[in-house]
Amino acid sequence: MQAFTAVKRGVDKVIEWLCIIILAVMTVLVTYQVVTRYFFSKPSAISETLAQYLFVWMIMYGSAYVFGLREHLDITTIKDKLHGVPLLVVELLINVVLILFAAVVLMYGGQAVTAQQMGTMDAALQIPMGVIYSAIPISGVFILFYAIYNIFLAFHNYKSGVTSVDKDAGSTM
Questions:
Q1: Does residue 25 fall inside a structural domain?
Q2: What SS3 state is found at 128?
């Protein structure tokens, strides 16, 4: 489990830096857009479009990252009252559903949309729209990884006698 946790930390760092870089680039692009629009009265369609696409990418990757930290929206009213096998079963059920969602909707569906849109060019950036849609299957891979990690963590917690779901339980292993 320690090796799996180390890999998870590495994935966390990759997504963290990816989101930091995207946010920094977006900040520069939006600042440039404001300067060109208000001081020179000549807005840049390229910087505006690229900032919009980067914002979508940041949302997709940031959502996967937050899911991996177990900071996502999670209604735990019933789960907090469970212990032992019932808690393990609920954790497994939740993560199996998430694996199905990530694999079918995000990865398979996202890849299909990405492939379909490779022939369509964005008017402002002159890049295939499939490149823009690629954030969907990539975030699906991250979510799939985190859901699998959460299953292993649930089994580890059950075997270790941990009686509640702790979002940071994996960090002490």
A1: yes
A2: strand
- Whether residue 20 lies inside any domain: the answer is yes
Bin 70: left if φ > 0, else alpha if -120 < ψ < 50, else beta.
left
Handedness of CA 34, 36, 38, 44 (dihedral sign): negative
For residue 122, what are the contacts with CB-CB under 8 A and spacing of at least 6? Answer: 49, 128, 129, 132
What per-residue confidence (pLDDT) applies to 43? 85
In a domain, 81, yes or no: yes
Instruction: Give the pTM.
Output: 0.84
- For 6-43, the pLDDT digits (tens) are 999 999 999 999 999 999 999 999 999 999 988 988 88
Structure tokens of 88?
Answer: 């393990």
Which residues have C-beta within 8 Å of that of residue 80, sequence separation ≥ 6?
Answer: 164, 165
Mean pLDDT calculated for residue range 98-127? 92
Is residue 118 in some structural domain?
Answer: yes
Q: Give the count of domains, the chain.
A: 1
DSSP 53-97: HHHHHHHHHHHHHHHHHT-S----TTGGG--SHHHHHHHHHHHHH
Range of the domain at 32: 2-163
Percent of the chain past pLDDT 90, that is, above it, reads 61
